[in-house]
Design a protein that fits this description.
Layout (H helix, E strand, L loop, with lengths): L1 E5 L5 E5 L9 E10 L4 H7 L10 E2 L4 E8 L11 E3 L11 E2 L7 E5 L19 E2 L10 H15 L7 E4 L3 H12 L5 E5 L2 H10 L3 E4 L5 H8 L4 E6 L5 H7 L2 E10 L18 E6 L4 H16 L9 E6 L3 H9 L6 E5 L1
Parallel strand pairs: 4-7, 10-11, 10-13, 11-12, 13-14, 14-15, 16-17
Antiparallel strand pairs: 1-2, 1-4, 3-5, 3-8, 3-17, 5-6, 6-9
Helix pairs in contact: 2-3, 2-7
Length: 340
């Protein structure tokens, strides 16, 4: 099978691997699609994903595939099911899984069928079946939705509370949409791209601020003289933390989502209140992500989420390297999905 790999210098290549073998509680999945993550995948390519140093690495963690073969003790998956998050669990011909979702085949595990006390990867909790009425290629977006909703729950946002969200890429737009659906208000979106701000408004943002065209701190203080209780950095820019420290309210929260490329920052909390929280959600819990699955499906069924609002382009696997180059160059504002 073919897969996408990066070496430690960041060079991308299509490599040949062995189709993975499965155990009695596992299923073999043929990849249908996988999304390019401008966070995780880009950091693996650049060599600055914290605590990861297994190169050459196999990229991809936003996959979906069709079950083609099941182990003899599998009870909760069947051939033909479309399942999220197939991945590679082991090194393969000298390549190491940076989850490996861009391989043509992956593995899922039926943890619910396993005997008590049996060890298994946490990722199995998020390997959920996608209903037949959803387009399996576009359903790749469910991975991002679930990760973000799990973070929203972890951060503890409540209905009726105001929130400020930095960034309006796929992750930022998801935060904005969920804030709207969960009745947070008003929602302030901060971006440096006017087109992204238009998308933010479409997803439910009430106030739009372009950080290159206004004094964000002054504008926020006009609306909330005592500061914001909820601030989210969905852009992964450490410099935003100091701006957030100037607008956070007493007992407010600054919530950082994802792994920043730079893992150090000099913070100045001179203008911040005496009591506030700085929270990081850098690693999505697959248990929490799995628990978010049902709510995402409910919103999709109700028409509250539309895949097309978050997807820029769907391209064939043969164009994967060019698509990655486009994402790394910042040319795409939304999700690019690779179709197999």
């Amino acid at each position: 099978m073919k897969a996408l790999a990066t070496d430690k210098s960041g060079a991308l290549s299509i490599v040949e691997l062995d189709v993975p073998e499965i155990g009695p509680y596992q299923a073999l999945v043929k990849t249908v699609a996988c999304g390019i993550c401008s966070g995780t995948d880009a950091k693996l390519i650049h060599g600055d994903f914290k605590h990861f140093d297994a190169y050459p690495a196999l990229l991809g963690h936003e996959g979906i595939g069709r079950v083609e073969k099941i182990g003899e003790k599998v009870k909760n998956f069947k051939i033909g099911d479309h399942v999220l998050l197939p991945y590679l669990e082991k090194d393969n011909r000298g390549y190491f899984p940076g989850w490996g979702g861009f391989a043509e085949y992956g593995v899922i595990g039926d943890y619910q069928a396993m005997p008590a006390g049996m060890d298994y990867p946490e990722g199995y909790h998020a390997q959920s079946i996608v209903p037949d009425n959803l387009d399996p290629v576009k359903a790749v977006m469910i991975v991002t939705y679930r990760e973000v909703l799990a973070a929203v729950r972890r951060f503890g946002f409540k209905a009726g509370e105001p929130i400020l969200i930095y960034g309006a890429g796929p992750v930022g737009l998801s935060f904005i949409r969920f804030a709207k659906l969960l009745d947070l208000a008003p929602i302030i979106a901060v971006e440096i791209d006017d087109d992204k701000l238009k998308e933010a408004k479409k997803q439910g943002a009430d106030v739009l601020l372009n950080g290159t065209k206004c004094d964000v701190v002054a504008e926020v203080r006009k609306l909330f003289p005592e500061g914001m209780g909820n601030i989210v950095d969905a852009a992964g820019v450490n410099a935003l933390l100091n701006q957030a420290l100037n607008i956070v309210a007493h007992d407010g929260k600054i919530c950082v989502y994802g792994i920043c490329a730079q893992t150090k920052a000099e913070l100045d909390w001179t203008q911040a209140p005496h009591n506030f929280s700085l929270l990081f959600a850098q690693w999505p819990s697959k248990v929490e992500e799995g628990r978010a699955h049902a709510q995402i499906l409910d919103w999709l069924a109700a028409g509250a989420l539309d895949f097309d609002d978050f997807i820029a382009e769907i391209v064939p696997f043969e164009q994967i390297i060019a698509s990655f180059e486009s994402v790394l160059a910042g040319a795409s504002r939304k999700k690019i999905i690779i179709r197999y």
